[in-house]
Amino acid sequence: MIQLIQKGGPMMWLILAVSIVAAVLFLKKLFDLHRAQIKWSDFLKGIYNILSRRNVVEAVSICEETPGPVASIVRAAILHHDEDKESIQRSIEEAGLAEIPRLERNLTMLATLAQITPMMGLLGTVLGMMQALLAIQEKSPLVHSGDLMGGLWQALIATAASLAVAIPIYAGYNLLVGRVESIVLDMERASVEILAFLTGRNQQKGKTGA
Fold this sequence. Notes:
Layout: H1 2-7, H2 10-36, H3 40-52, H4 56-65, H5 69-79, H6 85-104, H7 107-139, H8 145-209
């Protein structure tokens, strides 16, 4: 492996650094998204039971202790539970807008690494071909195949390495995007459910008070 990296020229070290950075970003993001995605339906059932006992403080506390954006938007809704439907919906939307950038953090970096890594390989290929041409120029007219091997090896290894790194990065990026979209869908479903629950609860209070 070390021999291939050395034959691949200076760009190989940069490609290797990109692969390490991308792996760290991917694993950290995957762990964060795994913690952020909860079973929102079971979570809401527990919140409904607590709110049915009129224990708003406990419901807010559970939301604060639960990781993920679903808990955050439910908390925002509960904090405005005594207000009208529009106010509750507005608080949910504001909480959701604050959570989405957190979900998408570092995804742009992964996408950028996936796009520039093949360009790094192309640059390594060009440098390798330039090295081969310089060898031809210096050794001409008596050029041996061994004189060209260094440049050709550098060109081929840089291309292969860049593709071997870029393909998994791009696949990992798409996997993370899919997880983010799934969490956003959970947020939307939970928003509709908690809004309907709190609105119906307020209407019942109004009828009882009347």
